[in-house]
Specification:
230 residues; Methylamine Dehydrogenase, Chain H; 2 domains; four-stranded antiparallel beta sheet; 15 strands; globular
Length: 230
Amino acid sequence: MTSQRATQPALGARAIAWLLAIAWPLVFGALWFLGQRFLDLRSVAAQPGPGHAVEQIHHVHGLAMDPQDTTVLYVATHEGLLRYREGKGLEYVGEVRSDFMGFTHHPAKAGLLFASGHPHPSDNATNPLGVIVSADGGKTWRTLGLEGQVDLHAMTIRKTDGVVLYGWNVMSEPGLYKISTSDAKATLIGAKALGQVYALAAHPTQPGTLLAGTGRGLFASEDEGLSWRA
């Protein structure tokens, strides 16, 4: 009798310990989920408006200078488009706070921008964005095409005429794409041998000449990406 009574508390303690061990991951998971939702809601509520001064920036994905005004620099970031103007510093442009991954400016037309990436949690937009375009310097954007199909993490534009985009897609069918700036008609070039491409640049005067910054160094192509050399 005495030994049975002595063992009952020990069995109860072990049972409680097992229950805690099983329940704690579930509790932790629930708290983490609620915390993430709270952060998302805070992010939506705390979006800075157009013209809001920027003290610091994170995750810069692209830079482009206005071809008609070299004192204006556009900065594509993880949290929207910024603009630097000489004497005025950095400020947010427009209301869109998408994650701009690929980004480029038309070589001649002021304020004509192209981008790719992911929508902000508050936006009712397809993810990924495909190719989007702005004709007013980033104040407003519209979908050009390929939404839900391409996520271009590097992008450039043919500098000689501005009618072709070159973008490195990281989803679905990855690789180098040639995309029309008028209707987003796309051709997969491939170039998968490059590995991971982090940056693309088009030659200012030689159509079809591209540079690619990769994890294995810098590569050049003179035939619109069909062949590459280190």
